Amino acid sequence: MENTQRQVPAPAPAPTPRRRKGAEAILEAAEVLFAERGYNAVPVSAIAARAGVSKANVFHHFGTKDRLYLAVLRRACGAATQVWHERMAGDGAFDARLRHAAGAHLRHLLEQEEVSRLLLREVVENGPRRGAELAEKVFDEHFDGLVRMIRDGQRNGELREDADVSVVAALLLGADVFFFLARSVLIHMKAATFASDPERYSDLIAEYLFSGLAPTHK
Amino acid sequence: MENTQRQVPAPAPAPTPRRRKGAEAILEAAEVLFAERGYNAVPVSAIAARAGVSKANVFHHFGTKDRLYLAVLRRACGAATQVWHERMAGDGAFDARLRHAAGAHLRHLLEQEEVSRLLLREVVENGPRRGAELAEKVFDEHFDGLVRMIRDGQRNGELREDADVSVVAALLLGADVFFFLARSVLIHMKAATFASDPERYSDLIAEYLFSGLAPTHK
DNA sequence: TCCGGATCTGACCGTCCGGTCAGCATAGCG
DNA sequence: CGCTATGCTGACCGGACGGTCAGATCCGGA
């Protein structure tokens, strides 16, 4: 696994714009397959076949299956944070922004299902190991963005002063992740009426969180 | 995979109390290893070694690696629901019961870390496939128990009448699952102050959910 | 046109893994 | 004591997989 790579010792510090023909195709194929079946269950030959190149070519570009996986993770992280940043805008009342953030995040998870599953799996499989720095990075950025947004609302007096903003952020993200994880199971359950309606789900989440579940003060 | 099993065609409709010597050891070893590394990354030989039996013995008892995995899942499901039921008791005011449920569930996840990771992985990896009926069963029971508890509170007027109980349950469970999943990542983050204190976390979760995050009505 | 480096490939290798099988050992029984 | 059923094992097999290698092809520059 720590073999002598012939050439390409440090192939491209920044991803060079030109070149990259087969490499991109390989990355795309690998992303889909890894997300679908996980690292161990995907042979390099399958990735090569899907990308329309030879197996040896995969090793030519990435040296190791492990390095390919890392590259896929890196790419996925980049894409994820990019979309997320575009989405995190929002103004208006605080509860509206809560609703906006929760909805945007859930939509993001569902739209980028493959990437989401890939990163999520990475967290489940090996919390601090392997590409932890990567997953952690996305995770960190997302989490911090949300925390900042909530803290702003708190500073403006739109949120209880004694609230722990990071716990609030965890509640929001957790609710979305739970939906993403569990929807395939929930959809078969009578008790869960929300499983097929993510919009309504995140709206309710935000509303309950903001207004509380106590009986309406009459 | 669909080979002729010599004996034991329907070995024990209910798990027979006697026999079971090596089999139990194999199940235990497999549970730990599968939880740690996942199905594909664990060779049968490793399970056999850990259980102190020969590889062939594993096949003698379970016929297939796949069937062994199923058996592990089944066992884990049983243990999980049992503990859960013991925990779901609780009386007092509704918000106290909310807090109790959230805390108990999170404690349950953390104490049974291996089993939790096993089942969680099963949901992430293949939502509706393979042992879905199993994971779904635990999931269903847990979720339904929580939903019932919340609905009871609602009937007693301790909870907003218009609240969707299943969404509330999802919020609670999601928050806990998120904690379980993310704690290894969160623990390295400055923003998350709660990562090392599950008790406080679930207390806050329940309180925010019940009282809401709106500025305190003065 | 020739050259050199990069891209790409088919064929191959060593290893590991799931699963099989023929037989050993032990325990219950006559 | 012998017979048999059965838990159990070492040795083995076929296939798949990660990775290598020698060379074919392509392409830009001198």
Q: Could you give the topology of this structure?
A:
Two copies of one chain form a homodimer.
Chain A: H1 22-37, H2 44-51, H3 55-62, H4 65-87, H5 94-111, H6 113-125, H7 132-155, H8 165-186, H9 198-211
Chain A binds a DNA duplex (30 and 30 nucleotides) through residues 1, 3, 7-8, 19, 21-22, 43-45, 53-57, 59-61, 63-65.
What composes the largest sheet of chain A?
none
Query: What is the percentage of strand-forming residues of chain A?
Result: under 5%
State mean pLDDT of chain A (0 to 100 scale).
80
Biggest interchain interface, per-side counts = A-B, 65 and 65 residues
What letter string, H or E per element, gives the SSE order of chain A?
A: HHHHHHHHH
Coarse shape of chain A: elongated
Q: Helix amount of chain A, in percent? A: 55-70%
Q: What's the total number of strands of chain A?
A: 0
Radius of gyration of chain A: 21 Å
Briefly note the CATH topology name of the largest domain in chain A: Tetracycline Repressor, domain 2
CATH class category label of the largest domain in chain A: Mainly Alpha
* Distance from first to last alpha carbon of chain A: 68 Å
- What is the overall number of helices of chain A? 9
User: Quaternary status of these chains?
Assistant: homodimer
Give start-end ranges of low-pLDDT stretches of chain A.
1-19
CATH architect. name of the largest domain in chain A: Orthogonal Bundle
Q: What structural class results from the helix and strand content of chain A?
A: mainly alpha
CATH superfamily of the largest domain in chain A: Tetracycline Repressor, domain 2
Q: What's the domain count of chain A?
A: 2
